[in-house]
Amino acid sequence: MDFETTQKSVQSSTQVNFTERIVIETRALDFYYSPENKALKNINIKIPEKKVTAFIGPSGCGKSTLLRCFNRMNDLIPGSYLTGEVSIEGKNIYENGIRLERLRKKVGMVFQKSNPFPMSVWENVAFGPKVNGINNNEELNAIVEDALKQADLWKEIQDRLDQSSLDLSGGQQQRICIARALANKPDIILMDEPASALDPISTGKIEETINELKSSYTIVIVTHNMQQAARISDYTAFMMLGELIEFSETKRMFTNPREKLTEDYITGRFG
Amino acid sequence: MKEKMQRLLEEIKRDLIFLANEVEHNIRMSIKALIKQDAVQADQIIDKDRDIDKMEVDIENKFLTLLALQQPVAIDLRFIVGGLKMNNDLERIGDHAVNIARTVKDLVGVPLIKTVEDLPEMSDMACSMLHDVVNAFVHQDPELARSVCQRDSTVDKFYDEMIKKNIEIIRKQPDKLEQGFNAAKVARSLERVADLSTNIGEDVVFMKEAKIIRHGLED
């Protein structure tokens, strides 16, 4: 099949000469939901520090699966397993002895559907730091304020910190979730379609927030919205049928992709 | 949604080809009018340019609508950027046909300087560049586009030679100054037609290969 033939020629299309430090790296990563269901095939990708990297591709291409490999969220799926290596800051996170709570503190995650706890705004954002042993209220107040400011929510909500998070709008709830992830002071934030359920104004705020956060955090985002990937990311990875087809600077990807498959997908000629 | 964009792009492509044919026809007619010193034909060329201007505006509006509503990327985006420039270049070629037609009207009843005899050949060279570059656009053929760009220097050389001959004649016969000046104006318009056809060739290469070859950047 043409697609398989093309695969042999795309190795060079996934290599980027970074000037930035690499914080996430996979080598020969294969992921299986079951022995018969291989969702990722030989993924080799390097993700640079303090940049936004977007994963795009048709439904079922493996982009969310790959994202969830970066903080071992897939471990929760019975029967799933992987081969190869996923390194964060040079350390293989699938080695024995890795403490998952430490990993997930370092690698925060925001999901497609906002999922604030049924608690007040303050309790939501302070939840992680409290679990991690911070009990001093003054310190927690400072963390909550800082996280809400970074999530661009402080001005809107500073007088309503006691209000239930569930009473907020969808966009505000999603930014609460971002603030909750930031409160743990992660180095990396994974976002799985964080704006797909939001209206354009809320989406715009999330995108602005992402743009501001990238000076301090490494962000990896899965999005179905190609224009969103083009607007907010520095690098874009295009995946199809579990394979990484092309990984380039975003401006290159959307003006002159190397691979015909990428071009056909982003111009809507298939998919 | 994307099928709609492809349909709209095809429609604009057809419009550009139609515009290019109209423009080429007007340039060829303007040189015929010059040789025949035909003021009526010159007026027809000037009238026709109003349609050409309107076509250019319509095409630009279609491109703007596409950009605003369809958010094209990659090859589609390059087609639009290149196509917008091509549209503008074609309209300017149309303006050169008008410049020549106006010169024709100034020259009615005036004996022509000998160098005017060179202008049909120069017009053929410039118009064939335009014709071929439109073919390169139709078939999205960057090699043909490059070969058209290379022909520009031949037209430049022809232009320089003609100007030299013109100066020589005027030196010997100063009463031919006005005719010589008008012939030089026409030659200059034809030389610009070749330049603008070269620009279109560079745009075709950009559309197809995403390479910028103008300003000698490909060398």
Task: Tell me what the structure shows.
The complex is a heterodimer of chains A (271) and B (219). With 271 residues, chain A is α/β, with parallel strands linked by helices. Chain A has a single domain, classed as P-loop containing nucleotide triphosphate hydrolases (Rossmann fold, 3-Layer(aba) Sandwich), CATH 3.40.50.300. Chain A has helices spanning 2-9, 63-69, 100-106, 121-131, 137-150, 154-157, 170-183, 200-213, 226-232, 250-255, 260-266; strands at 22-34, 37-48, 52-56, 81-88, 91-92, 107-110, 188-192, 218-222, 235-240, 243-249. In chain A, the strands form two sheets. In chain A, strands 6-7-8-3-9-10 form a six-stranded mixed β-sheet, sandwiched between helices. Chain A has a four-stranded antiparallel β-sheet with strand order 2-1-4-5, with helices on one face. In chain A, strand 7, helix 8 and strand 8 (218-222) form a beta-alpha-beta unit. Chain A is globular and about 55 Å long. The two termini of chain A are 17 Å apart. The model of chain A is unreliable at 1-6 (pLDDT under 50). With 219 residues, chain B is mainly α. Chain B has a single domain (2-216), classed as Methane Monooxygenase Hydroxylase, Chain G, domain 1, CATH 1.20.58. Helix content of chain B is 84%, strand content 0%. Chain B has helices at 2-36, 39-70, 74-107, 119-138, 142-150, 152-172, 177-209. In chain B, helix 4 runs parallel beside helix 7 (177-209). The longest helix of chain B is centred in the first third of the chain and has 35 residues, at 2-36. The interface between A and B is medium-sized, with 13 and 13 residues.
